[in-house]
Amino acid sequence: MDTSAGPTPEVLAAVEDEFRAAFSAASDLESLQAVRSRFFGPKGLITGLLRSVGQLPPEARRDAGRNANQLKQRLESELEARVSTLEEAQRRAELERDRLDLTLPGRKPVFVGGLHPTIRVMEEMIELFSEMGFALASGPEVETDWHNFGALNFPDNHPARDMQDTFFVEPHELGRREDLVLRTHTSPVQIRTMLKQGAPLRIIAPGRVYRCDSDATHSPSFHQIEGLLIDEGVSMAHLKGVLQSFINGMFGPREARFRPSFFPFVEPGVEVDMRCVFCEGAGCRTCKQTGWIEILGAGMVHPKVLESGGIDAERFTGFAFGLGVDRVAMLRYQVDDLGHLFRSDMRFLGQF
Q1: Contacts with 53 (C-beta within 8 Å, 6 or more apart), sequence order
Q2: DSSP string of 284-342, one letter each residue
């Protein structure tokens, strides 16, 4: 087609006839795209006509440009409408082809995940103590020597400071306050909370701790929950009541006993035992044939610890306790080897 004369009425009519012939023959999106390129692309017929308007005499440019633009808009509108119709039909065909039959029975999952038994037990313990009014508190796992030992009345030569029992982050000097250590208990959280909040307070501090222990009932890294209650007039009777309520809540009604014991941060201190859940007191390997199994340590907070926490030891008293969550999980589910909780064996974990 000769379009050198520019967008005259005759040329525009011829271009429209050619467009309609091509448009009618296009039956799919690919052929319509070819029509778009042929007429409206950078080198398309109508594009070329619009560019040629500038070469016309000034008096002819206005009408020629208007007529060419009107033709372009009309034909493009028809083309876009046809493209939209075909695209919608294509989408409907794809949806129909990929349609899901919601009445078909579902596929049974090969494996359904769940909470690790240690985390499950920790959440139960937190709930039990929360019902008794204890609030949650937390702190860093990498602690200073002072928060982990000094503020808790550990003398510089106490065995818990020995390299065989404690993981220091870097070379250290005995008793240096700023030295860093992987916390051996969550008791540093108690010191931090006392310094921040003061008395009275009632908190539990769950978290991971680190020690150089490894046997059937101990692990070098384990979870612990410690509790602290400070107020006026707090006594050992309150401590016994809280711990007996905890044992009954976790294991059902069960006899407990309190044995005198030494911990630097409490005075007096006690070890708390309960009737063995494996043999019910008859004696077995886990309870070392005694019928009793140790579950936690506790006692009345030492005045020096209260002073380290900025609390008046003449006015306030308190008690503290600490127990391993993994050990409680072992007793709760009657697992005879604590290592099962750390080996990621799905044959074991899949039972919970």
Answers
A1: 6, 7, 61, 64, 65, 68
A2: -TTTTTSSEEEEEEEEEEPHHHHHHTT--TTT-EEEEEEEEHHHHHHHHTT-S-GGGGT
**What is the spatial distance between Cα 33 and Cα 44, in angstroms, rounded to a whole number?**
12
Measured CA distances, 90 to 33, 35, 78, 81 (Å): 15, 19, 19, 14
R_g over Cα of the chain = 40
Q: What is the mean pLDDT of residues 5-31?
A: 79
Helix-helix angle 45-52:58-97, to 10 degrees: 160
CATH (residue range 118-349): 3.30.930.10
Helix (H, G, I), strand (E, B) or coil at 42: coil
Contact call for residues 298 and 98 (beta carbons, < 8 A): no
Helix then strand then coil, % of the chain, to nearest 5: 45, 20, 35
Closest CA to 166 of 121, 202, 211, 226: 211
**Count of C-beta atoms within a 10 Å radius of residue 254:** 15
Can you give the residue ranges of every domain in the chain? 9-97, 118-349
Q: What is the pTM of this model?
A: 0.64
Query: Is residue 68 helix, strand or coil?
Result: helix
Instruction: Please give the pLDDT value at position 104.
Output: 77
Residue 218 Cα distances to 86, 212, 214, angstroms: 70, 9, 5
Residue 194: name the closest of 339, 294, 274, 313 by CA: 313
Residues 336/216, Cβ–Cβ less than 8 Å = yes
Distance from the Cα of residue 59 to its chain's centroid: 75
Q: Which helix (H) or strand (E) holds 118?
A: helix 117-131
Which pLDDT belongs to residue 172? Answer: 67
Residue pLDDT, tens place only, 244-285:
999 999 988 889 999 999 888 999 999 999 988 888 888 887
Using DSSP, state whether 230 is helix, strand or coil: strand
CA-closest candidate to residue 227, choices 145, 310, 315, 134: 134
What pLDDT is stored for residue 269 in this prediction? 94
